[in-house]
Amino acid sequence: MPVTRALSIQQPFAELIVAGKKKFEYRSIPTHIRERVYVYASKKPGSKKRWEESGYEFGTLPTGVLVGTVEIVGCGEDSGDYRWKLARPKRSKRVIKPKNQPQPVWFRPF
């Protein structure tokens, strides 16, 4: 099945996902999607504190591009939020600028 959706994630979290270090994405809404999706590194990076906690230097990772793909394999409730289980990340050989306008959570990049 071809990848058709993208999930917007701030850096450095997008990098942690494609590197296989971040196994869960926490959101305020559940998802029933169980498929491979693009990981879009949103234009707005996360806070400097988040970067420091991740071990990456602020502003050194790409933004506004698709950086890879990951499979969403589950979703469960966790302390009032929803924990989306991620598996089998794949980093893109090169970053790809989407043709369609990114949205806050989901969008179709092409």
Description:
The protein has 110 residues and is mostly beta strands. The chain has a single domain (6-96), classed as Hypothetical protein (Archaeosine Trna-guanine Transglycosylase, Chain: A, domain 4, Roll). The chain is 12% helix and 42% strand. It is built from two helices and six strands, in the order E-H-E-E-H-E-E-E. A six-stranded mixed sheet has the order 2-5-4-3-1-6. The radius of gyration is 13 Å and the shape is globular.
Count helical runs: 2
How many strands in all?
Answer: 6
Helix-strand string: EHEEHEEE
**Weakly predicted, low-confidence segments:** none
Give the strand order of the largest sheet, numbering strands 1, 2, ... along the chain: 2-5-4-3-1-6
For the largest beta-sheet, the strand count, sense and barrel status come to: 6 strands, mixed
Brief account:
By secondary structure, the protein is mostly beta strands. The chain has 2 helices and 6 strands. It has a 6-stranded mixed sheet.
